Amino acid sequence: MKGYVTLGTNNLEAAVDYYEKLLSGLGISKGAEFPGRAVRFGTESGTELVVITPADGKPATAGNGTMVALKAESQEQIQQLHARALELGGTDEGAPGFRTETFYGAYFRDLDGNKLVLYTE
């Protein structure tokens, strides 16, 4: 089952800039915009990620134990995008490398503290 993932942000403009620059490396581009509220990112086959300001008006917070996984095509792509995520202001949560015999991943947090992993198997 595949739908979409929503990540809350306290600065929509900064989050959109961050993800637009990062996700382009996966072939994911900015799509529909809802001014001051949300922006969708996706491919021709569908929406992948939405950054949004919380509907209740309270600050966005990163969920403890919540993580978004973005599939990459190669270890090299993961290395490049992990470095890019950090250059754009994200923080390292685990350098690129094998976590199991077949799972290669790199972990980071975005500008709002949301945890993501770039991975390939």
Describe this structure in words.
The protein is α/β, with parallel strands linked by helices and 121 residues long. It has one domain: 2,3-Dihydroxybiphenyl 1,2-Dioxygenase, domain 1 (Roll), CATH 3.10.180. A four-stranded mixed beta sheet has the order 1-4-3-2, with helices on one face. Strands 5-8-7-6 form a four-stranded mixed beta sheet, covered by helices on one side. The two termini are 18 Å apart. The mean pLDDT is 94.
Brief synopsis:
This protein has 121 residues and is of the alpha/beta class. The chain is built from two helices and eight strands, in the order E-H-E-E-E-E-H-E-E-E.
Features:
single chain; 121 residues; alpha/beta; 2,3-Dihydroxybiphenyl 1,2-Dioxygenase, domain 1
How do the helices and strands line up, and which of them pair or pack?
Layout: E1 5-8, H1 12-23, E2 29-34, E3 38-43, E4 46-52, E5 67-71, H2 75-87, E6 91-98, E7 104-109, E8 115-120
